[in-house]
Amino acid sequence: MRTAAVVGTGLIGTSAALALTGRGLTVHLEDADPDAARTAASLGAGTTEPAEGPVDLAIIAVPPALVGKVLADCQRRGLARCYTDVASVKAGPRSEIAALGCDTVHYIGGHPMAGRERSGPLAARADIFEGRPWVLTPTADTDTETLNAVLELVALCGSVPIVMDAEAHDRAVALVSHAPQLLSSLVAARLEKADETAIRLSGQGVRDVTRIAASNPAMWVDILSANAGAVADVLAEVAVDLGETVTALRALQAEEDAERRGGAAGIEAVMRRGNTGQARIPGKHGAPPTRYETVAVVLGDQPGELGRLFGEVGAAGVNIEDVDIEHSTGQQVGFVQLSVAPGAVRPLTATLRASGWSVRD
What we know:
Blueprint: E1 3-7, H1 11-22, E2 26-30, H2 34-42, E3 55-60, H3 67-77, E4 80-85, H4 91-99, E5 107-112, E6 133-137, H5 144-156, E7 160-163, H6 166-189, H7 196-200, H8 204-210, H9 217-226, H10 228-251, H11 257-279, E8 293-300, H12 305-315, E9 322-327, E10 333-340, H13 345-354, E11 358-360
Parallel strand pairs: 1-2, 1-3, 3-4, 4-5, 6-7
Antiparallel strand pairs: 5-6, 8-10, 8-11, 9-10
Family: Belongs to the prephenate/arogenate dehydrogenase family.
EC number: 1.3.1.12
Domain Prephenate/arogenate dehydrogenase: 2-283
């Protein structure tokens, strides 16, 4: 593949364009908003000049409801030899594409499982897809040339291809992406009118849960509208669990010991189910989840402090598997939680303390 077109220069479209231009491809950019395309071009994502002939691959990076219409227009213009899209819902667009009579031999649906809570070309990153799954939903008439072209796209972006049925994909993303987005927003909505004193007590837990609540509402309305039934099914199951949990919490306030014990058992049961579910999430590099231990270090808010800490951990021969930073409210310090192999905790703690770092027990 030497040439590509990206139609829609939002976060995902521009990120794909940046990844491809970084690999030496010529990328032509289109957007209904010319300013967005020019912004993407100014970032090095490609050119807004039209291609002189059909490009090797066109990437349709528009909301799910527009995929069919845009694909039909691109095929009418002969924009590319092969086509794909990156919409986060697959069944609805596939039905519309069939209804519009589009060429499905040279088209395959796609969905890179990557994103950010920010949107638009300025939020784009060439490395956003690296190591992430990229779902492909071929139909019975998708030809080999098209499949190979999109597999090359996935490889150039550093992603891992996963072939799925369109309906199965939509049920899966409802569970692992769309419903969590709404649940994060629901928790964050509780903070809208909360007392300022309560807000100041916010710690890393509420930050983790509400991080994606900063996402663009208009973009998510488009996504959820295309997958509303599957998301509603997930949330209906959550609502049942939530109702039972509320009942269990009320029981903890009861006067009778038996009722309180029943409430405690209900809370423990749902939390154990959560433990089991969380443990199924793939770990580093997609491998089975590994249990790491945490070393918590107090870090001053000065330039270079984090780099100095990482340097000393590296000099100690310890690999950092993951890192979280919790900022202290009202103080110029933070707490860096280094996830390391269990056997590294004791020697790393001793080394850091010997170097003057404050390590929390």
